[in-house]
Write a structure and sequence with these properties.
about 150 residues; mainly alpha; Four Helix Bundle (Hemerythrin (Met), subunit A); 5 helices; globular; Protein-S-isoprenylcysteine O-methyltransferase Ste14; membrane; Phopholipid_MeTrfase; Metal_cation-efflux_comp; transmembrane
Length: about 150
Amino acid sequence: MSDASGRRAGAWLVALQFLLLAALAGSALPHWNRAAVPALAIALATLALAVGLAAVKANRPGNFNIHPEPRAGGRLVEHGIYAWIRHPMYSALLLLALAAIAVAPTLPTLVSAAALAAVLWAKSSLEERWMSERHPGYAAYRARTKRFVPGLL
């Protein structure tokens, strides 16, 4: 894949990511009733927030962007939450998708969450290709960490 086609693919993946997040919100929010929100949904959303904040703390704004192509001059972050998983921001989004399923276990929510997982897998794969090209230490980092879930995936 050329850089130009990779950038186009990355732009489509970003658009799909936001479309699917909107679909998840659209399918879960109508079911959101404060008195009846499952404890599991609250726990997953809280964990998503913690993972997202840990990612921002370790990888300061300006070193990352929403597109899978790394920023020019960006550095490889291997500390904090990045010592365990390579894509904690995507992990946070997947946790939010699971929270949406806990709130509204409907077919549209399940399909949107599964599609989001596929998009984030594709987006992270593209990002990892570029990270490997730009950071000589990325292969070793990749070998000792998981993509989304510490010790599992």
